[in-house]
Design the sequence.
């Protein structure tokens, strides 16, 4: 009974281990999508089905291993036969006693496999590889800064398939067609990388809100795409060996460049956002440094004649003597004083506009003001050009009396 369950799980594993490979034939899927088969087949959900096939492989592998462990216990009890139901898989030396170590680690019993006796040893290695791939594929590994762990452990699929061909004598029949297509796609992709096809450069990177980076990439020659297509991007300054798919956000009619909008949600995308943020900070620092730098032009001194230099020297000398005199005391003149003296009118005029002029008592200006105030102003006479109104009234009265 244990053998029946083990072989049933094995048949399910034959299908799922090939189906998970078919779901990663990216160029084939792109070809089918361009032919309109996405209306019939869920080609855009191939990543989702790839994950679900992975869960089924882990489940059937665990059940397959448990059933064979129980079957091994039955075999060891019989102690003389390796497989009672299939005499073709028995070793020629089936009458000798084999221990559990012989079954699990050696080919001595000659039980199962493409090469007789490799079923149990290759099965142990396959369980270890599958456990590593499954654990490193979980979201807590991929989205917490360990995408490289996920990427490099996924390359274990190569020894996994090789060991799986040796583990099951019929698996190669399932694997030969999709494995050949997968190998051809890998060779084409490798040749494109070596030839530099699709190699381009980023013309600009703009930081948007919600940690989104808008990349404008120079459109490669003979690059054609349709709405909804995606591209694999590799930026060596971010990660040399990592390729990530992103949907093209620009229209196919745009000739000079293609646009990508990438949000920082993982290790690679966060590194991309930090890289362009650092570049933007450098540009802003250079711009601010250019604005704050001012060029000061020092005028050349004009040549002066000996006479002008002598006059300037005398002027500075007398100005120093005047500054050494008594301290300056402010004289505040009232703006409401309507006196008609010339000195006060001058002060009133000098105080107009809420500005006060300061004079010193011992200076030449104060002496000049005293001289003006000591002289008496001549009496004002009437202007001859204006008629005497009082005299005219007196003449009118005399005429009326006559």
Sequence:
């Amino acid at each position: 009974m244990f053998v029946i369950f083990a072989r049933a799980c094995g048949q399910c594993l034959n299908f799922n281990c090939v189906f998970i490979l078919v779901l990663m034939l990216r160029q084939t899927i792109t070809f089918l999508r361009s032919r309109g088969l996405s209306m019939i087949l869920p080609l855009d959900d191939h990543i989702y089905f790839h994950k679900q096939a992975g869960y089924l492989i882990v489940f059937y592998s665990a059940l397959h291993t448990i059933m064979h462990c129980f079957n091994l216990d039955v075999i060891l009890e019989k102690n003389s036969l390796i497989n009672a139901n299939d005499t073709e898989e028995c070793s020629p030396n089936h009458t000798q006693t084999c221990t559990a170590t012989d079954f699990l680690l050696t080919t001595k019993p000659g039980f199962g496999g493409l090469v007789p006796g490799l079923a149990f040893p290759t099965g142990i290695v396959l369980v270890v590889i599958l456990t590593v791939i499954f654990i490193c594929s979980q979201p807590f590994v991929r989205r917490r800064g360990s995408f490289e762990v996920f990427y490099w452990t996924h390359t274990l699929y190569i020894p996994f398939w090789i060991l799986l061909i040796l583990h099951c004598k019929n698996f190669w029949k399932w694997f030969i067609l999709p494995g050949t297509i997968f190998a051809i796609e890998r060779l084409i992709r490798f040749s494109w990388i070596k030839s530099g096809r699709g190699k381009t450069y980023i013309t600009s990177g703009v930081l948007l809100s919600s940690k989104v980076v808008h990349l404008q990439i120079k459109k490669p020659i003979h690059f054609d795409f349709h709405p909804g297509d995606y591209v694999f991007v590799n930026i060596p300054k971010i990660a040399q060996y990592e390729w990530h798919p992103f949907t093209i956000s620009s229209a196919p009619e745009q000739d000079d460049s293609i646009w990508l909008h990438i949000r920082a949600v993982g290790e690679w995308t966060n590194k991309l956002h930090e890289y362009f943020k650092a570049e933007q900070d450098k540009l802003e620092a250079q711009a601010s440094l250019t604005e704050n730098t001012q060029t000061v032009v020092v005028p050349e001194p004009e040549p002066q004649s000996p006479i002008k230099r002598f006059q300037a020297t005398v002027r500075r000398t007398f100005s120093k003597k005047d500054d050494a005199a008594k301290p300056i005391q402010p004289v505040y003149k009232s703006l409401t004083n309507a006196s008609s003296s010339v000195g006060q009118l001058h002060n009133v005029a000098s105080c107009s506009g809420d500005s006060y002029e300061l004079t010193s008592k011992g200076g030449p200006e104060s002496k000049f003001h005293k001289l003006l105030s000591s002289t008496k102003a001549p009496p004002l006479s009437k202007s001859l050009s204006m008629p005497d109104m009082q005299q005219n009234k007196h003449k009118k009265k005399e005429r009326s009396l006559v």
Observations:
- The two ends are 166 Å apart (CA to CA).
- Residues 205 and 216 are 6 Å apart (CA to CA).
- The domain at 202-287 is CATH 2.40.30.10 (Elongation Factor Tu (Ef-tu); domain 3).
